[in-house]
Amino acid sequence: MSERAALARDVDAASRVSGEFTLRSGQVVSEYFDKYQFESDPALLRRVAEQLRPLVPEGTDLLGGLELGGIPIVTVLSSLTGLPAVFVRKEAKTYGTCRLAEGADVSGRRVTLVEDDITTGGAVRDAARELRARGATVEVVLCAIDRSPEPGQALRDVDLETRYVFARSDLDAARGVAG
User: Fold this and answer.
1) Which end of the chain is more exposed for a tag (fewer CB within 10 A), N or C?
2) Of all residues in the chain, what percent are helix, strand and coil, respectively (each to 5)?
3) How many whole angstroms separate alpha carbon 122 and alpha carbon 1?
4) Cβ count within 10 A of residue 13
């Protein structure tokens, strides 16, 4: 079994849970990927970040981890690549520095966004718009799991290329391999 296939099996085993779950969209589902289960496991998180490393585009100045799920991944990915990380809030603070992105200034910099999973891409879409309004160039988002119906396509409407480690179909296939 390849390392990627073994990782898909391990991420699926750690993250897929059954029950009744209401998504942000209001949709109720019987299966859910609890990505914090792989993000809180240091060995598994590192393996995911190692798979993301070759997906980082040339010319990236900053890696922008989205609150909350993108923060653990961007921290490890930053360590692996040597690229500085910024931590992107859902909304700019209304006190203190009033910043949307904590860390280096994003203005005039090429920021590659990092997220744990994408279904519709709402949080990524909002972050890209806000960072662009602050002078950043944002063209690519990296994610561990792309759960969208057409992997890699959810953010085309805002000119964002999505690069991912696993599509949901990869995790479904891994579940079949795992038994």
Assistant:
1) C
2) 40, 30, 35
3) 35
4) 15
Strand order in the sheet with 110-118: 101-102, 85-88, 62-66, 110-118, 137-146, 161-167
Structure tokens at 169: 């179909």
> According to the model, what pLDDT value does residue 96 have?
80
Give 89: exposed, middle or buried? Use CB within 10 Å, 0-12, 13-18, 19+: middle
Show the DSSP H helices in 16-154 as ranges.
36-39, 42-52, 70-81, 122-133
Q: Tell me, what's the pLDDT at 175?
A: 87
Token pair belonging to 157? 């409407």
pLDDT confidence of 178, banded at 50, 70, 90? very low
Burial, 61: exposed, middle or buried (Cβ in 10 Å; 0-12, 13-18, 19+)? middle
Burial class from Cβ neighbours inside 10 Å (0-12, 13-18, 19+) for residue 3 reads exposed
Euclidean distance between CA atoms 162 and 26, whole angstroms: 24
pLDDT at 169: 93
Look at the pTM and tell me if it is higher than 0.90: yes
pLDDT in the model for residue 179? 42
For the four alpha carbons of 48, 107, 124 and 91, in that order, the dihedral sign comes to positive
Q: Tell me the C-alpha distance between 166 and 179, whole Å.
A: 19
